[in-house]
Amino acid sequence: MRILLLFGADMDVENAHNETPRSLLAAYDPMKADVFLRLVDEYANRPRQIPLYADHDEDDDILIEVGHSDRGPLLAPNSAVSMEVTSLLDNEQHWTRILDSYSSGYMEMNPHTNLLDGDPFSFWVSPLSRNAWVAFNFERKYTITGIRIYGWNSEQMIRTLQVQISRAGIDGPYVTVATCLCERLGGDDPSDPAEPQDFHGFRETSRYWRLLIQDGHGGRYLCFQGVEFYGYDREVWNFFKNLELEAYALSFINLGFNKLCFISLINDEDIAEVIDDEEKAKILSVALAERHQKENKQL
Hints:
By secondary structure, the chain is α+β, with helices and mostly antiparallel strands.
């Protein structure tokens, strides 16, 4: 365990059953659990060591050729795979910024922040033909299960895209969780609206995300219009989990209540659509009423 903590093991990472190391320790004998928790406290403020072949932003060749032999699942666009989450998150412009730590660069009036503006006619234009990247800070942990890329039918269109996460911060290190093979779709004129292509087949939770574009379709630079994410704010799941209603969380998320700020918008009709158990429906109704009351006091 010391070695895991030394290299940045995260005690809040969840498995497929939404269990974390901390929650599992709660079931241990208190004496044994205390030994592990003291180790966690001991390493909490130590600088994290980086493995010899970990990824480094300053050397993309190391990142691609050595650091990530595991590229995650290889995903084709619009494939018929089971979708855990069917609702797209509303983009927030501040998820990425005009700072060196958020992008490998951009050309003229086409910054990477255009990827989040919802405009099907705006572009991020990278001067690179390979290994361009853009990073996102969601400010809280989000579980992401898919992405939507908006692109076009051009040799400048991105092709091989790695979806990556960092446990440490916006500067990494990053680990690849999926590799998407983007196609040339839609129009070939920049004035044509962007064409979406969806990629599903991974599931990860993190605050820091990055898209690493390994190459394009033969152009001298890389260029595409936008990105959206299938997923949800982990605080939404925690809200339902604290009420022992996590069995219904995903149903509400897929109705569009995928951010904590949307929870208060759940109404009686939504509850009736998802929960057929009167007692559990009442638990949720009471919790929402209390949440409304707290929010009104804050106003």
